[in-house]
Amino acid sequence: MKPGADIIGHALQDYLAGEQAATIQVYSDIADPEELIAAYFFRSAAQMPELEKIALRHCRGKIADLGAGAGSHSLELQNNGFNVTAFDISKGACAVMRKRGVNNVVQADVFSLGAEQFDTILMLMNGIGLVNSPDGLVYFLERLKNNLAPGGQVILDSSDITYMYYDEEGALNLDLNAEYHGVVTYQMEYKNKKGQPFKWLFIEFPVLQEYCEQTGYTCELLAQGENDQYLAKLTLQD
Question: What is an example of a GO molecular function annotated in this UniProt entry (predicted)?
Fold first, then answer.
């Protein structure tokens, strides 16, 4: 591996090969370093958080699973009889999904889904973060119109991380002239090799609603979870 290499894909492949303790170090510009255990990507349906279980119950028709990782959501849906295509930009993750039995795997980012249309587009594990920024969200939502079948839906989750900007006295410290506070810069490290820094979007539900309204979508709150997480459904306005 070299800087910019496939950090997550490498860790997932190692776990699948038997390295049960495979762990990614995650650095960000707003919090202390954290660990991301590869085993979490391989969780069963019973091990999934409640928001993810609710999301899977709302899926219907032909499904695209964006940022599919090790394919746990795709496999659960596939095992329940759905036609699922799993998308991930990671070459290693795609290889893992194929080995695990995901039938349809495409190596691509969320902005490059081609012309295929889906009834449900699924984005879990703070999946909308893949768009990187509010501008990226607008661009993504506009492009996604080509990939939604008539009556189609987008099921996604995100988190409100405003709580991380309160000081010890309870005052909110936000620079209104800076980049949107929900854009976090991350860098991952695995086996002493670091990938390139990348941006990830966390967006409060009311702000997501505003962007949806601007781009012609209706945004519905499906459920709320711990740590200011939520699950939402987007549909194109009539």
Answer: methyltransferase activity
